[in-house]
TrEMBL record:
UniProt topology in membrane: Multi-pass membrane protein
Homology family: Belongs to the tetraspanin (TM4SF) family.
Name of the molecule in the record: Tetraspanin-15
A cellular component annotation (GO) from this entry: late endosome membrane
Amino acid sequence: MACGIGANTCAALTYRCLKYSLFVYCFLFWVLGLVLLLLGIYAETERPETRELQQVFLAPAIILILCGLTLFSISLIGAVGALRDNTTFLHTFFGFLVVGLLLQLFGGVLALIFRHQAYNFFNNRLRNGIRHYYDDLDFKNIMDFTQMKLSCCGADSYMDWKVNEYHSCEAPGPAACGVPYSCCVQPKGVKPVINSQCGFGALLEEFLGLLLCCLYIQRLQDLINDLENEEKDQRVTLVETNC
């Protein structure tokens, strides 16, 4: 390809454009990784000592630390390799990118093949988090944010909140048979005052329906038994009359 300012100058310009474009790309992700790492460390140090959730899946601070550390390290290798023209670092950076892409593709294929198992796994982990909703502030904030932004409640439905000891219908407090305020629908266009008790009693209607259904079935069975007894009495009367 012809270059009006000379072959050497054109090659040098192309080299510098590629060099600093790669460096800026790696630097931006290096900064992003550093921010995630610092946020994760801060969140982990601010968490209460008496937390009950020890699973990494439900520990956002640990996830931030791991993601930030990985992104920070890989981006640093790429930035140093681009800035110092170190082919070893550049090959290593390229290898990490290829491995990351392959892992994402492999994970996507596995998630598609085992989508039902993945769905059940995610829901089970989410229900476990709901069970300890008030024990982990990180998970609580993420759950509230997700429910409000996605306009959802629980994993499958609002009935998932029965597993929480405070929202179970057997609980003694005002939150019994209820759901968190983040499950409530907020008016659009207006910044409402958050009512933390707006979801209380939401599960009661489900149990009321079960109770009514149970009582109705029992009553229906009694009526059937009464009809059968009346038929038996009528048969006995007819037999005695014939005799």
